[in-house]
Each structure stands twice: as structure tokens, then as C-alpha cells.
Design brief:
Structural class: alpha/beta
Number of strands: 8
Strand order of the largest sheet: 4-5-6-7-8
Helix content: 40-55%
Largest sheet: 5 strands, mixed
Order of helices and strands: EHEHEEEHHHHHEHEHE
Distance between the termini: 18 Å
Radius of gyration: 18 Å
Length: 279
């Protein structure tokens, strides 16, 4: 009997991933994952397809979504895990996030049109192929124009932080996300805390506010980390009495980022979030 393998953070083509939900589940199976959470950005539209494939692959699929929210003007990501996907609170929040993203895409397109990228909104929508539209879709559409070399170039010159396509939105705050998650019977988890590049003081302040708002977990393992980083995140989880989660944050097959299930195990000093789940 193989050891259970949890990956509670990954993305499909329904947001900014490459693989369709069914393909993602098949890859997870091949990588030895036994429990997976599909956590697309601000949408649960991939769950029906993923659920069907999870049954075929024999994988336990946990409901998930990665919400964008704000903390003192900074864009922070919070995972909602193991909730009732049909609950009105989750449905309302994902619908509102979708509308916000549609509005943002229209503003981004307007700015890029002024720089000569004519018809870029329609081209980006085609790249999204019915999925929630994001900056990576704009980047792919911009490559097709021949005016940018690759995705990295698109973000460096047009779409990255501080650039013309970096359009800020009034995302919800921690309270909106944690309350919706709790109402739907799930748990809110602070995603990839090291990714925000905060000072220690700010990071601790953010975690404290997240816990105060009703947050229940923190990603102790996120993608490729050093043992020192994992140990540090474990200490923060214990300090703030938060449950520990882990995920690859997989977007696409690549040699540069963690593949599905290819992450280090949680330290024994923390309480895994799945221990709270009924079997």
C-alpha cells in the first residue's frame, strides 16, 4: 500500500493552467497523487469535469478555489478547501469575482489597444476558450501579433507589476473570503506566504489578521522549497495555531516548477489540514 500523497493547490485551463481538468487528474494519478484539490483562480467551473475524471482515476478530489483578495492594498491569495460547491455563499463570491475579472480584462484591453494591440480582447478571449480570462491569455495573444517574443517578454514590458497591463481591482478582503468559505463548510488557507516577499514583521501581521478574520490554515509547503523554508513556515503555523496545507501550485508541465505531487512532506510538528476532514 503506497503512502497517501496530498496536493491541495493546482490550476487547470479553467484559469491560468495549461491542462484541462480531466488531463490534470490523469497527470496527478501518474504522479502518485491520492488526494487532489483543483484550485483555479476565482472559479469552480472545472470541478464537474474534474469530479468525473477523479472517479475514473481513483483519486479523492477535494473542492477548491484560489480567491484573490486584498490586505492593505496588496494582492493576497486565499485558498478555500473542502467546501460545498453548491452553497450560495461560494456561488455568489465566484460570480462576483468573475464579473470583476471581466471588467479588468476590458480595462487591460483598452490600455493595450492604445499601444497598437488592436483586437486584443477578442484574441485573449479566444485563448481563454471559455475559461476565466487572465493576463497570461493576453500574453499569449500578444505573442501571436509578433510584437512580443514570449510570455516573459509580455509581462516584463506590458503586463507585469507596475506596467500598463497591471490593472488593480477592488478585490474582497480576508473577511469576505473566510466567511464565504466557512458558510459553505470549508476552510480558508493562506496561499504561498513566501511569495509575497514581505518583511518578517509584515508577514506576521498579515497572518495575524488572516487568523483574526477566520482563516484556518496556511500553506507550509508551496511548490519547490528548501527544508529551511518549510521549517520556518511550520513554525509560523504553530505560532498562529493554523492548520498546515501543502500544494505544488502546478500550472503546466515544466522543469522549472514543482510537478503535481512532487513536493516535500509536511513536518511532523504541524497538524495537517486533512485531519480535520471527515472520512
Amino acid at each position: 500500500m503506497s503512502e497517501p500523497c496530498y496536493d491541495l493547490h493546482c490550476h487547470s485551463s479553467q484559469s491560468d493552467g495549461i491542462l484541462r481538468p480531466a488531463e490534470l487528474l490523469s497527470r496527478a494519478k501518474s504522479q502518485g497523487v491520492t488526494t487532489l484539490a483543483l484550485t483555479d483562480h476565482d472559479t469552480i467551473s472545472g470541478l464537474p469535469e474534474a469530479t468525473v475524471q477523479a472517479e475514473l482515476e481513483g483519486i479523492d478530489l477535494i473542492t477548491g478555489v484560489e480567491f484573490s483578495c486584498l490586505w492593505y492594498g496588496r494582492n493576497i491569495h486565499v485558498l478555500a478547501l473542502n467546501f460545498d460547491a453548491s452553497h450560495s455563499a461560494i456561488q455568489a463570491l465566484t460570480e462576483l469575482q468573475l464579473q470583476r475579472r471581466i471588467e479588468r480584462s476590458e480595462v487591460i484591453a483598452s490600455k493595450l489597444e492604445k499601444l497598437g494591440f488592436i483586437g486584443i480582447l477578442q484574441a485573449a478571449q479566444a485563448k481563454a476558450d471559455g475559461a476565466i480570462i487572465g493576463r497570461p491569455h493576453f500574453a499569449q495573444a500578444m505573442i501571436d501579433t509578433g510584437k512580443v517574443k514570449d510570455v516573459a517578454h509580455a509581462f516584463k514590458q506590458f503586463l507585469g507589476a507596475g506596467k500598463v497591463g497591471d490593472v488593480k481591482l477592488q478585490w474582497p478582503d480576508f473577511d469576505d473570503v473566510t466567511q464565504a468559505c466557512s458558510a459553505a463548510g470549508g476552510q480558508a488557507v493562506l496561499a504561498h506566504p513566501l511569495k509575497y516577499k514581505m518583511t518578517r514583521t509584515k508577514l506576521c501581521s498579515m497572518i495575524d489578521d488572516f487568523k483574526e478574520s477566520g482563516g484556518q490554515g496556511i500553506e507550509v509547503v508551496s511548490g519547490l522549497q528548501t527544508p529551511q523554508q518549510t521549517g520556518d513556515m511550520a513554525r509560523l503555523a504553530n505560532k498562529y495555531e493554523l492548520l498546515a496545507s501543502c500544494g505544488s501550485d502546478f500550472h503546466a508541465p515544466s522543469g522549472y516548477n514543482a510537478d503535481l505531487g512532487q513536493i516535500s512532506a509536511l513536518p511532523q510538528s504541524v497538524e495537517p489540514i486533512w485531519q480535520q476532514w471527515s472520512v
